Amino acid sequence: MSIEIYADGATLENIDELNKNPAIKGFTTNPSLMRRSGVTNYKEFAMEMLGRTNKPISFEVIADDMEGMEREARIISGWGNNVFVKIPPMNTGQRSTSLITRKLAESGIKLNLTCLFTYKQIELAITSLIPTTNAIISIFAGRIMDTGISASPYVYYAKNNATNNMKILWASTREIYNIQQAKSCGADIITISPKLLQKLDLHGRNLYGYSLATIKMFRDDAVASGYKI
After folding, report:
1. pTM
2. How many CB atoms are closer than 10 A to CB 119?
3. Number of domains making up the chain
4. Is beta strand 135-139 parallel, antiparallel or unpaired with respect to 111-116?
5. For the CA atoms of 8, 13, 19, 25, what is the dihedral angle to 10 degrees?
6. For residue 129, which of 15, 83, 133, 213 is within the disulfide window of CB 3.0 to 4.6 Å?
7. CATH number of the CATH domain containing 182
8. Which residues are catalytic?
């Protein structure tokens, strides 16, 4: 595939297996995914993850004030050369993070500008960087499409306005077909959850054969259950 696959929400239990998979080119996580997997100490979890992979991995700031975000970003960046720091477009008070993004970019920190849903957010994310910044522009395509809106135009827009050092990421993937959608509109990376990765071998599968396998599964389960009509 010409698009890079990043595992989204890897855990200490599955990181080794995922890291050995040549199809997985990087990793991302966020505080919600970490909480769901039982993480209680952010830094300890991050350092253990980093000890098991040298592939790109993104960790998110948790502060809600600009000074705190900048401080945390600099700390997180220092955890490893393969670390990208995730910065949202605004805090919970709707204050833009574009100024601290520029400061961090000018310091040479690798950034993952995350939670992008609108054209304006994408524009500000790109313009807050500098051309030499190694950065990921993460468009939450799956969540956008949850609202009944196609995410493809947003990804096209980002791709057409980004510089060469910026990679466009299709985030919050819902199904394997999203890989085709992401590729068709120019995304460089797509994030896929470990659960969805289990379906990756279905990519390009013959539909007639898939139909037959499904029919056999239903029949086998009916027989095994002893169902009668």
Report:
1. 0.93
2. 13
3. 1
4. parallel
5. 0
6. 133
7. 3.20.20.70
8. 86
